[in-house]
Amino acid sequence: MDIQPYTSTETLAVGRPWLMSMLGIEANQSVTLDLSKFDENLHWTEASKYQPDRILKSGIPLGKLTASGLYAPYNAVSNEVETLTVTGAPTGGTFTITFSGQTTAAIAYNATAAAVQSALEGLSNVNPGDITVTGNAGGPWTLTFGGQYLGENVTQVTTTESFTGGTSPDITIATTTAGGAAASADGSDVFAGFLFTEVAFHAGATKAAAPLMVHGQIDVAKLPVAFDPSDVPAGSNSQFVYKV
After folding, report:
1. Beta bridge partners of 133
2. Which superkingdom does the taxonomy of this entry point to (predicted)?
């Protein structure tokens, strides 16, 4: 693995703002993706009335699954996942979330996942992409850490509630996946390269052909998912220069 500083601000190609240079495009390899391993919230956008296909984002780091030979999202270490669950059926009120010494503004008891994520991104220590929140309005909400907290065993969040109604309403917090643990040795833990182009696929499809980029110059901050080059194991055959 060859990782070196690169400071150019050049960007190339529609849909590939992470690509700093076409250097190495000739090294792209044709691979087959295991679509069951990709997540809608992180890796692809849903179809619409005017666009019948789902679109897998370009720039996703990939690894090769040992058992099938198919490619899936690169996963060197686990990312922290925490779940917040409202109990006691409150009918009103608010709560706050504290993460690493910083506390959000008040959040409605029945907030959407987007509202919870927005509140967290209002903290001085959380940038967009650092914490992705999913779930239904009113919870449970699942907090998945990435960005600057990619692969880290972060301190569990805490909450302070000012709920009304219900029976002893509260929020329970569980760490469902601790960050920093070694990923399963299934091949996805070995970095292979980046998905070079967007890939369209129909709902229900299980596989898709795609070009794998194994040589080039990359702006890590503009990749569609959080990626830390320092997590890449030694011995990778891919060669990239990363903008820092």
Report:
1. 143
2. Bacteria
Do 63 and 94 fall within a single domain? no
Higher per-residue confidence, 88 vs 6: 88
pLDDT, residue 51, reads 74
Position 6 pLDDT exceeds 60 = no
Indicate if the pLDDT at residue 1 is higher than 70. Answer: no
Which phi and psi angles does 243 have, rounded to 5°? -70, 130
User: What is d(CA 146, CA 78) in angstroms, rounded to the nearest whole number?
Assistant: 10
What's the distance, Cα to Cα, between the start and end of the chain in Å? 16
What is the pLDDT confidence band of residue 8, given thresholds at 50, 70 and 90? very low
Distance from C-alpha of 194 to C-alpha of 217, rounded to nearest angstrom = 11
Structure tokens at 201: 């696929």
What's residue 235's pLDDT?
A: 61
Out of 155, 177, 199, pick the residue that ends a domain: 177
Chain mean pLDDT for the chain: 87
The H or E element spanning position 117 is helix 113-121
Residues 200 and 167 grouped into a single domain: no
Using an 8 Å Cβ cutoff, are 112 and 133 in contact? Answer: no
Angle at 67 between CA 64 and CA 71, to 5 degrees: 25
Helix (H) or strand (E) holding 114: helix 113-121
Q: How far apart are CA 126 and CA 133, in angstroms?
A: 13
CA distance 110 to 112: 7
- Identify the pLDDT of residue 12: 47
Residue 240 lies in a domain: no
- For residues 86 and 138, membership in a common domain is answered with yes
Whether residue 209 has pLDDT greater than 50: yes
Range of the domain at 162: 81-177
